[in-house]
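Appendix B, example 12.
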Amino acid sequence: MEKEPHQFRITASWTSGRTGIAKCDTVPNAVRFAAPAHFGGLDGRWTPEDLLLTAVASCYTSTFRALADYSRFEYADLEVEATGTVHKLNSGYTFGEIVTHPVLTIVRAEDHERALRLLDKAQGLCLVARALSAKHIFLPSVEVAVQKGKNKTSQSRENTGENREQENNREAAG
């Protein structure tokens, strides 16, 4: 395992009026962004808030993929939705909570419990989620892929009474 720290760098600047551009040395395409329309920005551009939620969802997706590969866990699909709620405080705006809702479609129903364990483990290992101080709610779902002549079934913690909240800044357990 590499012991040296990894460093990531982007640059962002306003290009004109109410729009900006973010660049990264390792990616050829720049991202054009603006403040959200309800904060005086422009519609039709990525916002910093969108990009934060993109970082949460894409990091979770990448972490789960690596964990599934390492664990030799086969699945049909993973879709991750991230939502954030912004609140105004006396000191300014803040994310009150971020909800990550991965929906994992598995091939075999007997892999359901293992799938939930891997979803939980990926949340605990997700670098971006661990870096955030906002309350982070995790709502995983596992679905069995449709087989010919059978209906798709879905079971999630929210409907099995096992919903567990996980916060990014939780203490590390030995």
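The CA atoms of residues 68 and 171 lie 25 Å apart. The first helix runs from residue 48 to 71.
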